[in-house]
Amino acid sequence: MATESAVAPGAALAAPAGNQPVSTPAPTTAPAATPAEAPKLTPAQLKAKAKEEKAARRAQAKEVKAASGVQAPTAPDAKGGKGKGKQDGSQAGQQSQKSALAHRPSVSGRRPSFHVVEKDTRSVIPECFSHVPMAKRIPTAHAHKDVHPAVLAVGQQMAAFTLKDSIARLQATLLAFKKVLEAYETPKGNSLSRHFVPHVLNPQIEYLTECRPMCFSMGNAIRILKAKVNSFDIDTPEEEAKEGLLEMIDLFIKERINLAEFVIARNAAKTIEDGAAILTYGRHRLVEKTLLRAKRDGKVFSVSVIDDPYDNGGQEMAKSLSRAGIPVFYSPNLGGLRAEVQRATNVLLGVEAIFANGSLYGAAGTADVAVAAKTASKRVIALCETINFDRERVSVDALTYNEIDPEQNSAEHFRLLFDTTRDYYLNGVITEFESGTGNSPAQAILALLRKQEDPALN
């Protein structure tokens, strides 16, 4: 391929060494072209020249990368020669590392910008159960940057099942939200009623939900809290709004958790008669408080505890009742259910929630106890706070709403944490919002909800 040498202006006037005269050769066809009259390059020559310059830039970049100890990037795109890796090696490496560490993914579904190797615990779950959620421990470094440290701690405790009971999770969440409120400052040009929920509260909720699916009581309480925030006028001073929210949370814990627990235990204790034989399943704080209250009231009775072999909470409750002077019969699993049901006069069940159609949502095994008691014509009473009632959803099986036990999940088997008991197997539900003993049919759930006062509407 022919090449053309470029002559700089004035180069033809330079005299050779020795001051020898310069003989100018006679032109053959035309006089020599001056720089201003240099012929234009053909497209092929332009392309060849561009390739040479591109190769020279690539070689220079490789030399710089090799000198800085960073591996050179891949070759740039063939079109235009403008690749993405044009920075020098050290600067590019530092900036990429900083961007990877500085960006923390949101728990709303975005993947982390840096590679994280995690064991897929759901890979062994059959596809037909893929809709059932499961608790998981999320490293705090992967949480949204706006998640408060108190909420991070609650999420870790819920994922590790240190906070297991629905009411314990609810109370811990509300106390963490109090700390979020105390640390909150409304940005300039915004109002608390418009800014707090989408920009502050929602990231906390997302993180907690990622750690473990939200229980019914948490969902109801968050709905009430959001309604209270939205009820403030846009011109309400920040301090006034924060004070109102903090007071609402304190009142909520006092009335809907502490007072409700006291009233339910008192009303349920009244249903226990002298000489009764009470049957219960696992360990539930409402049932335990009811039995201890009945003992303090001077009732004489015995208790049979059927335990969940995967949880063993009933063993601790049996010890607690025994220390209080209550005769206790303990069965480590459902194998002793039939014999204990025949001995029992009443069955007390503590549950996690109650659906709108009256079905119970309780620890796995609750349905077995209720069905066996109904078959034996025994009285079955459920204990539950109204904050655990669901106004809208119904359930007729244990697969629509449930959780997978992360500790019992392998290629051979997995375990569901809860089951559903149809209202047919219940004789009544004791709550804190009912006159007398609070013993109402499970079908009256919506009527009970209409009677309670919603703090968000005060």
TrEMBL record:
Protein name, per record: Translation initiation factor eIF2B subunit delta
Keyword entries, A-Z: Cytoplasm, Initiation factor, Protein biosynthesis
Organism of origin: Schizothecium vesticola
Pfam family, one: IF-2B
Family: Belongs to the eIF-2B alpha/beta/delta subunits family.
Any one GO molecular-function label of the UniProt entry: translation initiation factor activity
Localization in the cell: Cytoplasm, Cytosol
Region (Disordered): 1-117
